[in-house]
Specification:
By secondary structure, the protein is mainly alpha-helical. It has one domain (4-77). It is built from 3 helices and no strands. It has helices at 4-27, 34-59, 66-77. The radius of gyration is 17 Å and the shape is elongated.
Length: 78
């Protein structure tokens, strides 16, 4: 099982690579459905890992206040 930091770096790097994959074809004016679908899929995969991991990392320092911290976080995001 991978630890928290390596999973976070995998998700950040997949989002950055997806951004580069979308930016590179624009230099050569090659835009079609495949130059958008593959990078978007990779980006959504990375973002799907990153946001729950970031939420967990933000609440981890407060184990005795985890319910209060999570409620406050949800109210601020809503």
């Amino acid at each position: 099982m991978e630890n928290f930091y390596s999973l976070m770096w995998h998700s950040v790097l997949s989002c950055l690579i997806a951004g580069l994959m979308m930016w590179t074809p624009s230099w050569f004016v090659v835009m079609n459905i495949w130059t958008l679908i593959f990078p978007a899929t990779l980006f959504f995969f990375g973002a799907g890992m990153m946001f729950p991991l970031a939420t967990t990392g933000a609440i981890e320092p407060f184990p005795y206040l985890n319910v209060f911290a999570m409620t406050l976080f949800i109210l601020l995001c809503w």
